[in-house]
């Protein structure tokens, strides 16, 4: 082991001797940073943890400064973070300072109202706890109500009375809320929104009833007095009924228009009016029905009906029979008193009579069925429909199939109204579509009318005139192009003829000059004159002879060559 250590120390010394000064400085700096980091880590880990004074951050810098000054007065060491949270040494300190801040009204409004229950001290009484509970519920309610989109601010006043021994002596829980609606909000006239706030408050406060809750706006107008909403409810009900009536009329109108459009075309059908009278009265009908008693069911496998029934069955029967023969007995009064028998019956005393009485009471049972029928939310009282059908417009053509045109250039048309048999069929179709009921007072009218199609015809006439103008333009263009072509051809023919004549004239002049030259040479030869010709003259004569020969063989090429020379000159 000692040898290994000696060897390791020797290697380190050898390595240290090889390092430069810069490398040694870097090594010392790294070791110092590592030691400093370990020391700071140990110091921070050994320091006590800090707890937040208030759970939510404080965004108001002025409020944050006031809380910091109050903590400094109490001698509390604290730390404020960048996000606005305040930290103190321990939880007991946080609870004590929350009570102090609550007493001095330094708890921000945007913080949680339940932070007041963080304080824990022996001197806290039940009264103070109840006060803190009421304040927490109040602040929590205000935050809930202000979270609604229609509320700008809310002020809640809550009364939680002390518990009494007897229920009749107990004071009720009461609350009052003042709402400030946002601009453009309809919360003051929307009953559903007010009812939602009422339920929100009732569920948050135990024992609170509707009679002990008052909600008003900033002007003092009570909003939860729903007795004043009766007129508003009637107005809303009327709006819903009118909307239901309009939707039903549009449904009938769309259905009728769709059916007639498939037959006559959409541009020939017009639904003038669909009026449906609805009855929105609620009605419940109770009916008691008596029906026969089936004693034998029908066998479905047989082709005939073998069932039997009776109208009723006997449940109980009571019969009484009484018969009497002999002298009648008329009782008298007590001894010594005159009897109370009327004189008419006294005359019949001691007569032989015959008395007989028969009575039969029979109770029958029948099948009974009670039917309670509640009608739909609305019923149709009457349907009135008016529809108009346009006839057909046709363009007129002559015997050759050419379209006829008026003097002003418009298309000539003829109108044919809808025949009566088709009107009757269309009316029958509409009646079947709406479930026509004459007893209900329904009315359906389908007539033929000539629709105003002046705009449509004007557009068609303009299109027709534009087509006519286009055809005329094309024809005139073709004629103009043909005239230009013919003129060009005639010009070419005339120019060629003039060129040919000019060429013949030049050839004739050249031939005459050649003849004159030959005649001169011939005369000179005859006169035995020695004509000395230079080399240039002979070359010019040979060139002239070649040009004459070429002009005779290729006159067009020579003419083009001469024309080029003239242009260059």
Account of the 3D structure:
The chain has 569 residues and is an alpha+beta fold. The protein has twelve helices and 17 strands. The chain has helices at residues 2-18, 21-46, 61-73, 91-103, 126-146, 191-204, 230-264, 343-346, 420-434, 454-526, 535-553, 555-568; strands spanning 51-52, 78-80, 86-88, 151-159, 173-181, 208-217, 269-279, 284-291, 293-296, 308-310, 313-327, 352-365, 367-374, 379-389, 392-395, 413-416, 443-448. The protein has a three-stranded antiparallel sheet with strand order 1-3-2. Strands 4-5-6 form a three-stranded mixed sheet. Helix 11 (535-553) packs across helix 12 (555-568). The chain is flat, with a radius of gyration of 63 Å. It starts with a helix and ends with a helix.
Unreliable spans are: none
What is the helix fraction of residues, given as a range? Answer: 40-55%
State the order of secondary-structure elements, H for helix, E for strand: HHEHEEHHEEHEHEEEEEHEEEEEHEHHH
Number of strands: 17
So how many helices?
A: 12
In terms of DSSP E residues, the strand content is 15-25%
The strand order across the widest sheet is 1-3-2
What does the largest sheet look like? 3 strands, antiparallel
Described by the principal axes of the CA atoms, the overall outline is: flat
- Structural class determined from secondary elements: alpha+beta
Radius of gyration: 63 Å
Kindly report how far apart the N and C termini lie.
123 Å
Mean pLDDT: 77
How is this fold's topology laid out?
Blueprint: H1 2-18, H2 21-46, E1 51-52, H3 61-73, E2 78-80, E3 86-88, H4 91-103, H5 126-146, E4 151-159, E5 173-181, H6 191-204, E6 208-217, H7 230-264, E7 269-279, E8 284-291, E9 293-296, E10 308-310, E11 313-327, H8 343-346, E12 352-365, E13 367-374, E14 379-389, E15 392-395, E16 413-416, H9 420-434, E17 443-448, H10 454-526, H11 535-553, H12 555-568
Parallel strand pairs: 5-6, 14-17
Antiparallel strand pairs: 1-3, 2-3, 4-5, 7-14, 8-13, 9-10, 11-12, 15-16
Helix pairs in contact: 7-9, 11-12
